[in-house]
Amino acid sequence: MSIRYPVFLDLKNKKCLVVGGGQVAERKVLSLLECGARVHVVSPEITPRLRSMAGQGRISYRYGRYESSDLKGIFLVIGSTDQDEVNRQVEKDCITRNLVVNIVDDPTKGNFFVPAVVRRGSLTIAVSTGGNSPMLARKLREELEKNFGPQYEEYLNFLGDLRKDVIRHVADPETKNKILESFVDEQVLALVKEGRVDLAKERLISAYRSGRA
Description:
- It is a single chain.
- The protein is α/β, with parallel strands linked by helices.
- The chain has helices at about 25-35, 50-55, 85-95, 135-145, 150-170, 175-180, 185-195, 195-210, and strands at about 15-20, 40-45, 60-65, 75-80, 100-105, 115-120, 125.
- The chain folds into three domains: about 1-115, Rossmann fold, CATH 3.40.50.720; about 115-150, Double Stranded RNA Binding Domain, CATH 3.30.160; about 150-210, no CATH class.
- The strands form two sheets. The protein has a five-stranded parallel β-sheet, sandwiched between helices.
- Helix 5 runs parallel beside helix 8 (about 195-210), helix 6 packs antiparallel against helix 8 (about 195-210) and helix 7 packs antiparallel against helix 8 (about 195-210).
């Protein structure tokens, strides 16, 4: 398998198709919605949760088997059926149309696969083994979840706001760079890792004031 190019896609308001309606499809739908996608599901059967989401208007749903016409206006496709014939047809149709397509649990099909992901607000850490061992990717993700707790979301939000202020008010490039580097020095990151976010914030503010002075 060739080396894959890692990329984070902006799916906000993009129409994405999920072919299949089982538990795996449900997980894929939820992850797409989390990224702001407009999700359309095609399947003869869907889970109760997907049916409820369709009833609420959170997703659109067409009852029936996949057809190539389902790809009209679609940006990204996920094939998650348990039928190889259907998955192969989805892949073939998408590749012909230069669409982004993933066939779940088969990295040899399609042109992308979904990595194991840790999310902490704006912080996203993705792990891939190139399809060689999804289980190892999951284990590594679990380790990362332990090392990067929920406090990183609060810290990163604060850091982002402070960084914008530095960019707006510090003109000298060298001074600006020194201040930004001080925001992520080892002592600050150690405090965040320990969950002492308030103290880390104080260090950031102090470093900013000292740098400007």
